[in-house]
Amino acid sequence: MSNIIEVQHLKKYFNTSSGTLHAVDDVSFGIEEGETLGVVGESGCGKSTLGRVILHLLDSTDGKILYRGEDITQVDREKMSELRKSMQIIFQDPFASLNPRMTVYQTIREPMDIAGGFSKEEIDKRVYELMDTVGLARRLVNAYPHELDGGRRQRVGIARALVLNPKFIVCDEPVSALDVSIQAQILNLMQDIQEATGLTYIFITHDLSVVKYISNNILVMYLGQMVEKAESDALFAAPLHPYTKALLSAVPIPNVHHEKQRIALKGELTSPIDPHDGCRFASRCPYAKEKCFKENPVPEMIGENHMVVCHYVHEINHL
Ligand code: SF4
Ligand code: MG
């Protein structure tokens, strides 16, 4: 399988009054067509920014984003509006992301209006088809967002994202604002749609238990940098980076019987504004040594598909 998306040394910096914020700092990965990459980290780790830069909703500072082999950081506006149909986003809070003055029908059809070239019949057919796909009763077609509960609002957001038949969707915390019972329904729906269409997802979340089942691979980020990437099962079975270990220790996982000691992280958060060299996790890492505060660790492959960014990964894991 070939990579539908490949990100190479991607950086996104923001100038702020207190300095340069390194929101995404040298991130590289590939996603195979039809798979889901979970991107996990605490709020402020740059995962949402990463999603927006990949979709070209924000300009990158440096690096490449290849979509089917073509660098989309270099394409002109016309080509980008063409590509935009293939690449969509589902937002965290469906209430904030839906226009309160637009009905379900108007919301779902709007991307077709913007793209242009569709007849009224084609639009009607597509809107009803998608309402069926996402499990929205057709009688809700003229409802407004405030008349819908959170789960139904997110179904509208999903239908809207699907309306132009995209190949790739960035899902930014799509279930975080929903009740736990609704979360599972929406996750199942997203998986069913993926199976039926071969869609590729980037699934951004702070909640590891959410990405475990939906992701083929998981990328863990900390303050703008990658710390670990592995197949989902491998990551949950044996996280190798101290930060991932701490994150996972806080997740209750059913069917895991061995005693798990919760690792509490102490220490100050390093500032992502004008950061100095060294591992950004060093101020909180229980294994940090002098070198960690001075030199950037570099990505290292442990086995075929497991990437870790830590000076002492071998020592810590007795590899
Ligand atoms: Fe901890 Fe050092 Fe590894 Fe960073 S490089 S995770 S500080 S041991
Ligand atoms: Mg976010």
TrEMBL record:
Pfam families for this protein: ABC_tran, oligo_HPY
Keywords: ATP-binding, Nucleotide-binding, Transport
Limits of the ABC transporter domain: 5-248
CDD domains, per the entry: ABC_NikE_OppD_transporters
Segments forming a coiled coil: none
InterPro entries attached to this UniProt entry: AAA+_ATPase (IPR003593), ABC_transp_ATP-bind (IPR050319), ABC_transporter-like_ATP-bd (IPR003439), Oligopep_ABC_C (IPR013563), P-loop_NTPase (IPR027417)
Matching Gene3D superfamilies: P-loop containing nucleotide triphosphate hydrolases (3.40.50.300)
An annotated Gene Ontology molecular function: ATP binding
Protein name: Oligopeptide/dipeptide ABC transporter ATP-binding protein
Organism (species): Laedolimicola intestinihominis
